[in-house]
Design goal:
J_dom_sf; about 300 residues; chaperone; DnaJ_C; alpha+beta; HSP40/DNAj peptide-binding domain; DnaJ domain-containing protein; four-stranded mixed beta sheet; HSP40/DnaJ_pept-bd
Length: about 300
């Protein structure tokens, strides 16, 4: 009895290759024997239907002769073709003496499918900024099997990869031949690792440059000071110039991200301590008396 492969996959006879592949993958995921909803017999039937309809040549034969097209016997279908042996007809077309080769044929041998490289897999990897600037190792799970074949198993295997130092947000790293399996002896596809950087509590990134806010006291800003600056590769001792204003930027060269590293920028933030005791209040009043002529809101006189 001929099976309706289109009905098994739930597609129309005019379905495109993409529609057939999508339908198969959805049903295979549902009925795979390893799944809770698995059904081995149903999965086998789905795979049989996909194997035929995903191959243009097999699909054409199926559309003409049904699911028994591979077992055409002597005398043809229903005694047609003048009693000719249907298997011989196929042999003449594709086997001995035919287009595929054999004695006197054009090809000089049986036609073989060309090797085809497997498809690439894309895997996102999350890194801290410290890992991005120093490099890191990760073990990731990749899918096994042929992506576009009924042998696609939905199983995974772990592989260890090295993330080089200096990677950037959205950067892609290619791991050769660790992707989906090749077809007909072709090489495996690659694994494409896409970098995603975690947000940091202290640092922020703009392209290759790293920014950090540095809180200082008013007297450090006014008189100058030496302070420790945090970077992604440890602390750096820097001098705060006397008279530094809030919002000023200081550069630490080469402490950013990238293969050719960007810079780290230190943004000064002046923090004013509260006046909570009588002595502290008196100190602020003394400052106001001695420096009352200073008005940060006053615009400077235009230069003439």
């Amino acid at each position: 009895m001929s099976k309706d492969y289109y009905q098994i996959l739930g597609v129309s006879r005019a379905a495109s290759d993409k529609e057939i592949k999508t339908a198969y993958r959805k049903l295979a995921a549902k009925y795979h024997p390893d799944k809770k909803t698995g059904d081995e017999a149903k999965f086998k039937e789905i795979s049989e239907a996909y194997e035929t309809l995903s191959d243009a040549e097999k699909r054409s034969m199926y559309d003409q002769f049904g699911s028994d097209y591979q077992n055409a016997g002597a005398g043809g279908f229903g005694g047609g073709f003048g009693g000719a042996d249907f298997g011989d007809i196929f042999g003449d077309m594709f086997g001995q003496g035919g287009f595929g080769g054999g004695a006197g044929g054009f090809g000089g041998g049986h036609r073989q499918a060309r090797p085809r490289k497997g498809e690439d897999q894309h895997v996102k990897v999350m890194l801290t900024l410290e890992e991005a600037i120093n490099g890191a190792e990760r073990t990731i799970n990749v899918e096994v099997g042929h992506k576009d074949s009924h042998s696609y198993s939905y199983d995974t295997k772990p592989i260890k990869v090295r993330i080089p130092a200096g990677v950037l947000q959205d950067q892609k790293i290619r791991v050769k031949e660790k992707g989906y399996q090749g077809m007909n002896g072709g090489p495996n596809g690659d694994v494409i690792i896409e970098i995603n950087l975690q947000k940091h509590t202290d640092f922020r990134v703009e392209d290759k440059d790293v920014y950090v806010d540095l809180p200082i006291t008013p007297w450090e800003a006014a008189l100058g000071a030496k302070v420790d600056i945090p970077t992604l590769k440890g602390t750096v001792r820097m001098s705060i110039a006397a008279g530094t204003q809030s919002g000023s930027k200081m550069r630490i060269k080469g402490r950013g991200l990238g293969k050719e590293p960007g810079n780290q920028y230190v943004v000064v933030q002046i923090h004013t301590p509260p006046a909570e005791t009588p002595d502290q209040i008196a100190l602020y009043e003394q400052m106001a008396e001695q420096m009352g002529q200073y008005n940060p809101r006053e615009k400077s006189e235009p230069v003439t």
